[in-house]
Design brief:
Belongs to the CPA3 antiporters (TC 2.A.63) subunit F family. This protein is 67% helix and 0% strand. By secondary structure, it is mainly α. The chain has one domain. The termini are far apart.
């Protein structure tokens, strides 16, 4: 069991370091949001490994809260992060017309 915990700990530390790098260097806001969501998932995984090692479910509430915060944070940012530019009005002189087209019914 101790080998399992050590291997999981090493993997979680490596994942945490990679995630912190992405959180600091992410070129866009969405990269940073995804990195923070992954960081919360890593915290949840660490809590789960701790629960397995101790053979107790005392931290189940903490695990659920961390998961819920990560989910709601990602959904909220995804809802308000809109990369589309506002629609621009096309001047009336540039609007295509169908006058003179032989295939248009009048």
């Amino acid at each position: 069991m101790e080998v399992f915990v050590v291997v999981c700990g090493v993997i979680l530390v490596a994942a945490t370091l990679c995630t912190i790098y992405r959180l600091a260097q992410g070129p866009t806001l969405l990269d940073r949001v995804v990195a923070s969501d992954v960081l919360l998932a890593i915290v949840g995984a660490a809590v789960a490994v701790d629960m397995v090692y101790r053979r107790s479910y005392e931290n189940m509430t903490l695990l659920l809260i961390v998961s819920l915060v990560g989910f709601l944070g990602s959904v909220t940012v995804a809802r308000f992060a809109n990369n589309q530019k506002p629609a621009e009005e096309t001047p009336a002189s540039e609007v295509p017309t169908t006058a003179g087209d032989p295939g248009v019914d009048r």
